[in-house]
Amino acid sequence: MPMKHLFHHVAACLLVASASLSSIASAQAAAVTNLRCEYRENPLGIDVVKPRLSWKIEVRDQRSEVRDQNAERALANSEKPGEALTGMAKGNTEVRGQRQSAYQILVASSEALLKNDKGDLWDSGKVVSEQSVLVEYIGKPLESWKQCHWKVRVWTLTSDLPSAMPVRASPGFSELASALPAFRPQTSSSWSQPAAWTMGLLKPEDWQAKWIGAAANTHESLLLRRDFPVKSGLRRAVVAVSGLGHYELTLNGKKVSEDVLTPGWTKYNKTCLYDMYDVTQSLRPGNNAMGLFLGNGMYNVKGGRYAKFTGSFGPQKAIAQLRLEFEDGTSETLVTDDQWRVHSGPVTFTCVYGGEDYDARLCQPGWDQAGFSDAKWEPAVVTQGPGGAMKGLSCAAPPVRCFDTFKPVKTTVLRPGVTVYDFGQNAAQMPRITVSGPREASVKLSPAEIVGQNNEIGQASVGGNISCSYWLDGSGRETWSPRFFYCGYRYLQVECVAAPQGGALPVVEALESRVVHTSSTPIGGFSTSNELINRIYQMIRWAQRSNMVSVMTDCPHREKLGWLEQTHLNGPALRYNYDLNAFFSKLMNDMADSQLDNGMVPDIAPEFTVFGGGFRDSPEWGSAFPQVAWHQYQFAGDIELLRRYYDGMARYVAYLEKKAGGGHILSDGLGDWRQLENTPNAVSATTIFYDDARILAKMAGLLGKAEDAARYGKLAAEIRDAFNKQFFNAAAKQYATGTQTANAIPLDMGMVPEENRAEVLGSLVKRLQADGLKAGEIGFPYLLRALANGGRSDVIFAMINQTDKPGYGFQLNYGATSLPEDWDYQPGSSQNHFMLGHINEWFYHDLAGIQCDPAAVGFKKIIIKPVPVGDLTWVKAHYDSLYGRIASNWQRDGDKLTMDVTIPVNTTATICVPTKDAAGVTESGNPAAKAKGVKFLRMNIGAAVYEVGSGCYRFCSGK
Q: Read out DSSP for 310-351?
């Protein structure tokens, strides 16, 4: 055949191959979903000049049914075991090995421009990159209030397509081959659905509004109002607002959002948070009214009833700036100033600890609607703010909202007019009551976690004198719920009180409780064949939910303070359940604001009150500063917190170094809190000091600070050597007093010399099996990891299935519905404390085996390494990473083990299949070593190890 004809013949073959492969790709259409700006969906108030953008990619086989993950996320809020879980998926060989090869981002100043594919703010062009998480905006400089509309499309590659036909070198063939990308075809997705973000106020001078309040500081609650006109042709209206301590914003008589307890708690002399809302639909042409209802919150803790502390940043005050944008291109601004009017509100007592009282007789109907006569109100007074910088979403947790609504499951009448209602679940809640009765009658609600004999409420379990009261105005059926107070409780005692002049008692028509917590998205689900483990998981999850407001509180009733040790010791356990990237970014700002000039980070942040001794300065608590930032890097691949707070973290390690002196041993602090053994404080203090130095060395390396990396690496080695010299007992092969904590922490941190690791682990196991669980809050997470990493998850399984010794089963036997503060369940302690919930990490990381590969943080590379243990017959779990859903479900029937695994697009995974013989492992019914998209790597300690790309896989193995 002449060369010319041969050339055309091969070209035709290549085109046919290209078309064939393209048809395969078309059946596997990529869709770009879940667009996020700084971890948030369509956010308002972005106050970083170069926001970071993320998206997920779904590649769907159009011939297969696709599960609706959004529906599953909605189910996750129901907190019923198994309800939010993926089913036992079937291996799908059609959609595998998909990864992003390039992306294009368009950012436009209007929806119309974006719809026409015009990115006037930024058109990235086609960027050859796999990055789909935290892509930095590098378009035109953005200014305050700017709304940015954006969308993304991606190009994807399949790493598991059939091999291309061999082509021999001939004149023109190389050019032809390079011109036909059919050998590894790229397919372009459609544009994603549009998303948007709105810039906050970037500079102090952008705030035209002033802080305003009342002339006299005599108000328990404060109402502020202003009428204002809106001309026709309104295109968009956005308001930036902060009210201290808490506020509710209304426009024309209606609350502008579902958020409660806004803004978030901060150290107000350092940071004041503002919220931003799109209120276009709340306004109308003509006269309008804006209202602000203020309460005290953590900003102003006066006491008067139970209070953990008292302290104030000043009287109640507010600042608001409303921007009106019109179709004709003009804009107008309404600000808080001395033209506003103020009046006392009907909340007559408000304390974040003690409760809230409301007198309906003091209501002024229509006060926040246009046309209300405020002639008897006082003019607002322009005042100074508390001193903190105004910050938006960069330092804010997701808003707090009300979720599940509970109705009583049991009602006990103690005496006429006094009834105890049992809601069946201990949670952070706001009660809502509907009553009827004569004017001036009242109803008093007292919360409790437990009840005593005769069903009397156990007030000691919530701190003492805590109550909410409502005085009726006699208008009929009246419904009320506190605005500025929430509490952790299971029981409510309701006392109906007749009017002072006598008469009938008010009648409770309805009573319910609304669960209150941050709106951080649930991203994890877990369930097993063991009902006790399922109950433990739910008990912990309830405690987690109950303590996520704008800080991670230790309990939602007595303290409500941000004790920091929980944020890092429980960090992974929390992050597997909820998307907390934005939340923990806020906590990092709290720690930075609370750090002292000498570098010390106090045990609580924001530091609203100063405690003494170890209750202010304990290394296991203050070390949350570097530890939380490091967790964010591991779970999200986010380096920003390392960059932003590096200097502060370095100052903290320098503070610890100075305290330790030349010997590198720290001995002060609280030690292993709530332990049931006697571990010297110096063990936990010094090991966390070592870990801080080790982490800072890694951070410095990532940030290009080579000298710092070497210095901190040397410091860590010196601390490790000093610790081993001080505490290692070579004869007994144990550390210090030989407690569970003393041996577990150095094991997990890699401080034990390699030649002694097996014997130290043996000492730990022996002690645990003999004594039962004794480790406290600090030691317990390291105990779990030391055992799991040492191949002794069987010991963990046996430990948590005990019900007759202190531990989770023991707590459940006493009736706990959320995690208590103590292993041995002390009735006088908190019954809703997430601090001992570390086992949640083991559930996901080890039982289900969902792990991030250190080779590529943020779950860009994944390890699936389940541990079938005990009598478990199945485990189901999923975790929604920034790339998409990772699922690991396994079940066993006799000697047969089946693993169903889902790996999201644009990631790869190493899958460890428990087996004694790799030759007997199958994937989707085929020998695993020959399965499509599966690469056998090695045998490793009772498991066959495979490398896979994205997709769904079903591995089966026998003995």
A: -EES-S-EEEEEEEEEETTS-EEEEE-STTSEEEE-SEEEEE
Q: Do domains 207-397 and 401-518 have the same CATH topology?
A: yes
Name every residue whose Cβ is closer than 8 Å to that of residue 519 and which is 6 or more positions away in sequence.
398, 399, 400, 401
CA angle (794, 799, 801) in 5-degree steps: 95
Prediction pTM value: 0.92
pLDDT tens-digit series, residues 39-91: 999 999 999 999 999 999 998 653 343 344 444 444 444 444 344 344 444 56
**Domain covering 207-397 in this structure, CATH number:** 2.60.120.260
Taking the C-alpha atoms of residue 956 and residue 245, their distance in angstroms, rounded to an integer, is: 58
What homologous superfamily does CATH list for 864-957? Answer: Maltose phosphorylase, domain 3 (2.60.420.10)
Give the CATH number of domain 3-198. 2.60.40.10
537-541: which pairs have CB atoms within 8 A and are 24 or more residues apart? 537/81, 537/840, 537/843, 538/79, 538/81, 539/808, 539/811, 539/812, 539/816, 539/817, 539/818, 539/819, 540/573, 540/819, 540/834, 540/837, 540/839, 540/840, 541/79, 541/577, 541/840
Domain locations in the chain as residue ranges: 3-198, 207-397, 401-518, 524-848, 864-957
- Average pLDDT of the chain is 91
- Choose among 209, 570, 266, 293: nearest CA to 396: 266
Query: Could you tell me which of 600, 573, 587, 348 has the C-alpha nearest to residue 480?
Result: 348
Second-level CATH architecture of 524-848: Alpha/alpha barrel (1.50)
The CATH code of the domain at 401-518 is: 2.60.120.260
What are the residues whose beta carbons fall under 8 Å from the beta carbon of 341, sequence distance 6 or more?
224, 225, 226, 374, 377, 378, 379, 380
